[in-house]
Amino acid sequence: MPELPEVEVVRRGLEQWVSGRTITSVEVRHARAIRRHLAGPADFADRLIGRTFGPAHRRGKYLWLPVEDTGTSVLGHLGMSGQLLVQPAGAPEEPHLRIRVQFTDTRTPEAGGLGGTELRFVDQRTFGGLSLHTQVPGEPDGLPDAIAHIARDPLDPVFDEDAFHAALRRRRTTVKRALLDQSLISGVGNIYADEALWRSKLHYERPTATVTRPRSVELLGHIRDVLNEALAVGGTSFDSLYVNVNGESGYFDRSLDAYGREDEPCRRCGTPIRRRPWMNRSSYYCPRCQRPPVRRALPRRA
DNA sequence: ACAACGCCCTGAGGGC
DNA sequence: TGCCCTCAGGGCGTTG
Questions:
Q1: Which bases of chain C come closer than 7 Å to a protein CB?
Q2: Most buried residue, A9, A52, A156, A173, by CB count within 10 Å?
Q3: Domains defined along chain A, listed by start
């Protein structure tokens, strides 16, 4: 569920509440939560204790914190249901608490400090996790090598629009598959893909090879718009699973035009929105505004 | 090399 | 009431 806007909200929370703090203890409660850290839980903790977190960064749905003076970064992914929460150390444990990180600072929030709070990774479905990786040399932000293959996201100032269009045309696939391919464009998931396609009046099964340059420019514009609008209201929450570091939900679900609106009228033309099974999930679209691609007739055999 | 599929996982909700 | 089935779906390893 967390896509780029939701992850960015969490990144900002980490920047405010976790960056600059020095770690005293790391408790891994569920091994699956650090499965991408191949050296295991003890190694993960050993490498962090006594170290200090740098600024929080994000690419697509991944976020990371450089660990100062180590050439490594802690990488995080929320998966379907992951949460990074900053909680008072004495707060009751969440049912799906997976990792707990405590810090040295003792100055309380009332005294203008951050002391007395800890970082918790909570994850019901365990698709997410934390791990520690070597930084890619020459990358200024400490990009973890494990995500060097992840494309820049459309809100990144360095995102290459020309390269995106060229890659889209080169692919032999359909447009929604391409939007969800994080090596082509990152940060877009099922919700915002459906929203951007609805705004672009594009059917999810349109072959990428038929998307013209003006259409891909328009699509990219709608992707940026919908991501920015969601970010401005704190992201989308369908249930209580997605929250910021303070446990609060966003409000963008009230603004969705397609996703989750099966049988409700299209906000452009009134036609009931349809839901179709698609790659073990769902695609929501307006059957009138988003016409399916016309299949070219096969050449008639003699 | 590229495209597509299967699997990982748990809780909510529906049907009977 | 309780059980079983389906659904939610991001990313990666495997298969085609």
A1: 7-12
A2: A9
A3: 4-146 (3.20.190.10), 161-285 (1.10.8.50)
